[in-house]
């Protein structure tokens, strides 16, 4: 469960006086998510989401995240819209944390996505990449090469507790990625965490994307690699070629990948697998027992990383041959 900061009814009611949202009728903490504290509010004007921003979110980045949601929404992407306070600000404070109210998005996230859903996710990711064009704020990716090294420095000493030999394996992976990371690929605003729990569906139709709190400026194809990692592997660790094909077809139906982006997919996928391995490893080693959050398994991403390391070409992700040669 991710409610790190509790709130009182009185404080919440006081916080809501700054907004035009009617009367509070009920509220409860949401037992999902990892990063922030989220509450579902019912008001006389309808449901809303209250988010209190926690440890990995820098307050200085909040105008980027909240402004991005406004920008994407205005360009037709289905995503939550932050609500302005009476003074026009999107951000307030509650229980000592920065806090925002955002619109409630209908739908549910899928526990068992199929290839047809991966196709929809691919399309929505490409739509987001196009809709992000022209967003005036920028935010470098804090979880790219330099950020990985910093995270690794905090966990390396204890990594062999999780699996023997990890210290050497990850150190040499970081060296490889530092020497081979692509530089001149198309870049823009990426979601950077488009996992299953951040994509809502109503039936088989995608109803929207949530959780833009890792969004940043980076290589667009890196975001594709994050989705391949998050959506196209089965629980037993096997890569599902049908899902990969559907995801990539969906993406390319909206924004075709260049030959250079396609060629870079294996190294980008190694990087994105390492990124989630490292944050999970850090949380695994530092979250105190009994904390009200479900720790995610770092080894799932180590296995994905090893899979990408033995990929000979991007064709193995399920790209049609005409997409590779064009
Ligand atoms: N705009 C929204 N509409 C509906 N539900 C939401 C919305 N934002 C968050 N939620 C709910 O809160 C949960 C956690 O939100 P999320 O943004 O993923 O948190 P975290 O940043 O902590 O991972 C989601 O799985 C969903 O159930
Ligand atoms: N997607 C990340 C964890 C971040 O969680 P989210 O609830 O913000 O999506 C992972 O799986 O490691």
From TrEMBL:
Keywords: Amino-acid biosynthesis, ATP-binding, Kinase, Nucleotide-binding, Threonine biosynthesis, Transferase. It comes from the Bacteria. Pathway: Amino-acid biosynthesis; L-threonine biosynthesis; L-threonine from L-aspartate: step 4/5. It holds the Pfam family APH. The keyword Amino-acid biosynthesis applies. Residues 27-257 form the Aminoglycoside phosphotransferase domain. Its EC number is 2.7.1.39. GO terms for molecular function: homoserine kinase activity. SUPFAM superfamilies: Protein kinase-like (PK-like) (SSF56112). It catalyses: L-homoserine + ATP = O-phospho-L-homoserine + ADP + H(+). Belongs to the pseudomonas-type ThrB family. NCBIfam families: PRK05231.1 (NF003558), thrB_alt (TIGR00938). This is Homoserine kinase. It comes from Neorhizobium phenanthreniclasticum. The lineage of its organism: Bacteria, Pseudomonadati, Pseudomonadota, Alphaproteobacteria, Hyphomicrobiales.
